Amino acid sequence: MRGFKKVYLLDPHEALFQEIEVEFLDETIIRSHLECEAVDCFRFDDYHLLYFDDNGLRAGMHYYTMVAGYPDPLGGKLLLALNEEGPFPVPDLELSTALRRFDCFRPVLDPVIENSRISQGSITRYISIVGRFSIRIEPIEIRIITL
After folding, report:
1. If 0-12 CB within 10 Å is exposed, 13-18 middle and 19+ buried, where does residue 49 land?
2. What does the alpha-carbon distance between residue 22 and residue 104 come to, in Å, rounded to a whole number?
3. Per residue in 34-76, pLDDT tens?
4. How far is CA 99 from CA 17, 45, 53, 63, 85, in A?
5. Radius of gyration in angstroms for the set of CA atoms belonging to the chain, rounded to a whole number
6. What is the signed CA dihedral for 82, 88, 93, 95, rounded to 10 degrees?
7. pLDDT tens-digit readout, 71-107
């Protein structure tokens, strides 16, 4: 596919990291793949940029991603692309190598069951209710999809 540019798309919601091809890479294409309006980016390494939803951290989110070397969590999909100034026509790292820099997580609610015993004469009743929920953060295992 001559003239196409390969980029990598991380979708923590679907637990996928995949190669995709685009004819060109501009803000409209990036927003379309990230499914957002506000895009920001930072230098992933000397030759690549990581694009992300600048408003991805919001109430009700179901997952987030930490990137090694970047201090803040990121919400939403991420797009890894060659910096136009770089010397390579496609990302100069394997998907598996890039994926080692990402850690994806999701919050999980676990019910805490409270049990009580009520005795009246010779009859004993046991009652179980959800007293509260405990919250934990669970890592998401990401699958790699290649073209």
Report:
1. buried
2. 25
3. 999 999 999 999 889 999 999 988 888 899 999 999 999 999 9
4. 8, 13, 18, 16, 23
5. 22
6. 60
7. 999 999 999 998 875 445 566 788 999 999 999 999 9
